[in-house]
Every structure is written in structure tokens, then in C-alpha cells.
Design brief:
Strand order of the largest sheet: 2-4-5-7-6
Largest sheet: 5 strands, mixed
Radius of gyration: 43 Å
Number of helices: 10
Shape: elongated
CATH topology of the largest domain: Heat Shock Protein 90
Mean pLDDT: 78
CATH superfamily of the largest domain: Histidine kinase-like ATPase, C-terminal domain
Number of strands: 7
Low-confidence stretches: 332-337
Strand content: 5-15%
Length: about 375
């Protein structure tokens, strides 16, 4: 029952019920007293009415005094019983829910969110209790997310610190070698300088990855979506990857199965980041003497599907569903030579999803992994439609 209806009924009951009950009681008591007076004094009809017009006569009749006392007591008792009944009824509908919300507010104030507030009735206070419960769930969810985020941030800092320490240690070692005269030939000096340069690039990549992650996590990536020709974009992308793979003893293959001049809507810079992150991840876990990476482009109806296949160590089935999670690494050991912050593929997933696409992976341990992602085709709308 609605609270407004409950209060209305209570108000009307407190006003009317005592009057009705008291009226019935007074009527019954008066009828009894009249009968008694008639028998005692022999007064009836017109004589009865004239008899009661005299206040002196009334005051001298004990039965009238007794009647008035009974009537007053009856009215007081009826009012008291009605008020008590209404208080109990209102208490059950108002005071108890308010008490529950007060207790819940105190728990929230103390940071205790592991409780449940159940509405007892479908009225305004019941709805308020439900809103309070929804707020508690949201606060609890936000608190859990914050704890998880804090844990992930600590893990990220730990990962980045470890991965920065390795190249910094190498750079210090080679610089000390140069200072101590260990690099006493032009060939050694060139090797030392190149190594220092490569290690500095590793540090730069890690810092850039961390910076980009902070932007993507706070939705501050400046996307520049534009129609891209599938053929032109991926041909250029394949040429760059091919040149990069030559110096890493990795065989690169490009296969375009898309007919015609299909287009997609994408940010070319971020799409290149996606491909480079996937390829970088493949190279990181490449365990074959002769690595292979294949890029395939397929037309799948309203979408363009991109496949990046490698012949690396593969991913275990238990890890496959988690590879796109932040900070997840299939190799839990921080002594792994691969290193990495564990956010590369999570960045990939975020970018693809914000392009309106989807990404997934298949893998077989010892054979390799294939990453798939799809992007919707761009279709020009004719003028006037």
C-alpha cells in the first residue's frame, strides 16, 4: 500500500472512527439510561422532553451524572485505542524502513558495504529502500573496481620498473666499459654504442606504452577516423612490416583476399598501433629458429577481417581467454627474458572496440597463434537518402 494512502486512511480513521464508535456507545448508553429514568420516575413522551429541559432536574438525577461520566470515559478510551492502533500501523510502514535505512547509512559511513537492504513493502519507502540498496551496490562495485585498479596500477608500476631496470643496467654496463677502455677497437665501440642505442629505444617504447595506456584508460585518445582503402592501407602496412622482419630473421607473408576497392572507417595511426602491437607480441614469444608471420585480409560480408598468424610458442587453452586482459602475462615469472608491461594486447582490444569492431585469438601450443579482428566496411550513402 502506498504511503500516501496509508496516511490518508490513518487520518480519516482517527477522525471518524472515534466519533462513530463513541456515537454508537453514547446512543446505546443513552437509550439504557432513558429506559431506567422512565421506570424510576414514570416520565414518558412529552413529559420526558420537558423533564430534561430543566437543568436542575438533570443535575438532581444520579443516572444522568453516571451517563456523562461513562460517555467521557468511553470517548477517551476509544481515542486512545484508535491512536495506539494507528501508531502501530504507521510504525510498521514508516519507522521500521527508516530505521533500516539509518542503519544502512551508518554502515556505509563506516565503509561496511557487505550487507543487503531488502524492501519489505511496495510503497514509497519501499522504493526508497530499493534506491538505497542500488546505491549501496554501486558504491560496493566502485570500491571493488578501485581496489582492482589500485592492484593493477601497482602491478603495472612493478612491471615497468622491472623492465626499465634491465636496459638501464645494460646501458650502465656498456657505458662503464667505454669509460674503462674495454671498447678499445672501433668495432667494439660501434657494438657498445649500438647496444646502448637499442636499450634506450626499449626504454622509450616502455615509457610510450605507459603514457598511451594512461590516455586510453582515461578516454583521452584523440581518434581521427577517416575512410581508408583496404588495399592501399594494408599494402603499405605490409611493406613496412616486411622491411622490419628482414632484419629479425622472420619470414613475412601478405595475402589480400579482398576484391575491389573496399573501404573501412578507421584511425590509420591507431590501426597501425594495433598491428604493430600484435606483431611485437608475436616476436616476443617466437621460439623457432626461422620465424613466420603472415598477414591475411579477408572480406566477410559487412566486415573486413584481418588475421595475423605466427609460428611461435603458442598460448595454453587456459590462458587464451585472458590474453586481452590488462597486465595479464602467460609467463607469470618476472625473470622471463621477454619482459613487457602486459598491457599491449589490452590496448589492442580497446582500440578495436572503439572502432566498433571485435578481436579474438586461436592458438595451439608449440604451433603458433592467430589473432583475428574485424572492422565494419564503409558504405557511402547516396545523396538524398
Amino acid at each position: 500500500m502506498k504511503l500516501k494512502t496509508r496516511l490518508t486512511i490513518s487520518f480519516v480513521t482517527i477522525l471518524i472512527l472515534p466519533l462513530v464508535v463513541a456515537g454508537l456507545f453514547v446512543w446505546g448508553l443513552a437509550k439504557y439510561q432513558i429506559s431506567t429514568i422512565e421506570k424510576t420516575y414514570g416520565v414518558t413522551g412529552t413529559e420526558y422532553r420537558n423533564f430534561f429541559r430543566s437543568m436542575r432536574a438533570l443535575n438532581n438525577i444520579p443516572e444522568v451524572k453516571e451517563f456523562m461520566i461513562y460517555a467521557i470515559i468511553a470517548v477517551v478510551l476509544i481515542l486512545a485505542i484508535t491512536a495506539i492502533g494507528m501508531m502501530i500501523w504507521i510504525y510498521g510502514g514508516i519507522i521500521r524502513p527508516v530505521g533500516q535505512m539509518q542503519e544502512a547509512a551508518q554502515n556505509i559511513k563506516e565503509g561496511k558495504l557487505d550487507f543487503e537492504l531488502k524492501p519489505e513493502k511496495d510503497d514509497e519507502l519501499g522504493h526508497l529502500c530499493q534506491d538505497f540498496e542500488d546505491m549501496r551496490k554501486r558504491l560496493q562495485g566502485n570500491a571493488n573496481e578501485k581496489l582492482e585498479y589500485d592492484q593493477q596500477s601497482k602491478e603495472l608500476i612493478s612491471n615497468i620498473s622491472h623492465d626499465l631496470k634491465t636496459p638501464i643496467t645494460a646501458i650502465k654496463g656498456y657505458v662503464e666499459g667505454i669509460m674503462d677502455g674495454v671498447a678499445d677497437t672501433p668495432e667494439k665501440m660501434d657494438k657498445y654504442i649500438r647496444t646502448i642505442y637499442n636499450k634506450a629505444n626499449e626504454m622509450d617504447s616502455l615509457i610510450n606504452e605507459l603514457t598511451f595506456y594512461s590516455k586510453i584508460d582515461t578516454h583521452r585518445i584523440p581518434y581521427n577516423f577517416t575512410p581508408l582503402s583496404v588495399k592501399e592501407y594494408f599494402v603499405d602496412c605490409a611493406e613496412e612490416l616486411s622491411l622490419d622482419m628482414e632484419g629479425k630473421n622472420v619470414e613475412f607473408g601478405f595475402f589480400n583476399y579482398v576484391q575491389g576497392d573496399s573501404k573501412i572507417i578507421a584511425d590509420p595511426e591507431q590501426l597501425t598501433r594495433v598491428i604493430n602491437n600484435i606483431v611485437s607480441n608475436s616476436l616476443k614469444y617466437m621460439d623457432k629458429k626461422r620465424g613466420i608471420i603472415n598477414l591475411r585480409i579477408r572480406d566477410v560480408g559487412d566486415f573486413i577481417q584481418v588475421e595475423l598468424e605466427d609460428n611461435g610458442k603458442g598460448i595454453a587453452a587456459k590462458d587464451l581467454t585472458n590474453v586481452f586482459d590488462r597486465f595479464y602475462r602467460t609467463d607469470a615469472s618476472r625473470n622471463s627474458s621477454q619482459g613487457g608491461s602486459g598491457i599491449g594486447l589490452s590496448i589492442v582490444k580497446k582500440i578495436i572496440e572503439e572502432h566498433g569492431g571485435n578481436i579474438w585469438a586461436t592458438s595451439k601450443e608449440g604451433t603458433g597463434t592467430t589473432m583475428y579482428f574485424v572492422l565494419r566496411k564503409y558504405q557511402e550513402v547516396p545523396t538524398g537518402e
